[in-house]
Amino acid sequence: xxxxxxxxxxxxxxxxxxxxxxxxxxxxxxxxxxxxxxxxxxxxxxxxxxxxxxxxxxxxxxxxxxxxxxxxxxxxxxxxxxxxxxxxxxxxxxxxxxxxxxxxxxxxxxxxxxxxxxxxxxxxxxxxxxxxxxxxxxxxxxxxxxxxxxxxxxxxxxxxxxxxxxxxxxxxxxxxxxxxxxxxxxxxxxxxxxxxxxxxxxxxxxxxxxxxxxxxxxxxxxxxxxxxxxxxxxxxxxxxxxxxxxxxxxxxxxxxxxxxxxxxxxxxxxxxxxxxxxxxxxxxxxxxxxxxxxxxxxxxxxxxxxxxxxxx
Length: 312
Prior knowledge:
Layout: H1 3-14, E1 33-40, E2 43-53, E3 67-76, H2 80-98, E4 106-113, H3 120-125, E5 129-138, E6 153-157, H4 163-177, H5 189-198, E7 208-213, E8 216-224, H6 230-233, E9 241-249, H7 258-272, E10 277-283, H8 289-295, E11 299-307
Parallel strand pairs: 3-4, 9-10
Antiparallel strand pairs: 1-2, 2-3, 4-11, 5-10, 5-11, 6-7, 7-8, 8-9
Helix pairs in contact: 4-5
């Protein structure tokens, strides 16, 4: 079965799984990629393994291993889990030839539609764990009066004087998420975060807001508007896609309503500019993020299955 036939069968199968998934055409090889295929009886799989590398000082380095081998897969037939298992066998053969054993800065990652559950057991048996999720919240067009106020909480655009507060909150967030494998703390993290946040302060169209609880700045939320989200917008069947970059609340203010107020404010801003869907990443194992975001109307769309090191 050729790759286009497999892609067509994959698309037909996923159309019954999740209406918010985008179209997924046949995989086209690119420079540095390796095409793989496998069959299991009357089921088939096509895959593309892509190697990417990031420097330890890059903006992306906290969110990934420095070297990542990512497998994109298309599965068709009555037993997609068997086809994926056969494809993973082929991929493991490839990884053993190119990845150093035991290197924790080399990861193998498979990004799958969250509701496409066949194959999950096969990934677990091969040492993969569901580490990260892209969650989606379709717009619900809140009333122009905005979300209800939270007593004691005031939300305002971040200003230049808020840089130290914002950096502290972002560092606290990264340190917490590092416990769950979705973040790697890097040397020079504070300097990199400072440089990144400095660009967002004082913008005419704000993308960063501070939450004050009875006058104390104890939370923040960062967003990307449609027009800035081409890097992730293709992950959802929507044209105007927003991205919620991060939401951080200082430890003393947790469970006070600050986080919910910040999320409601961000959603109001997204709705006002006509955003059709909002995406965000969160660590699946985080006992705070997972229930919080789903209480705000999100649900899993894509799941990152990761094995790190890629080869033991």
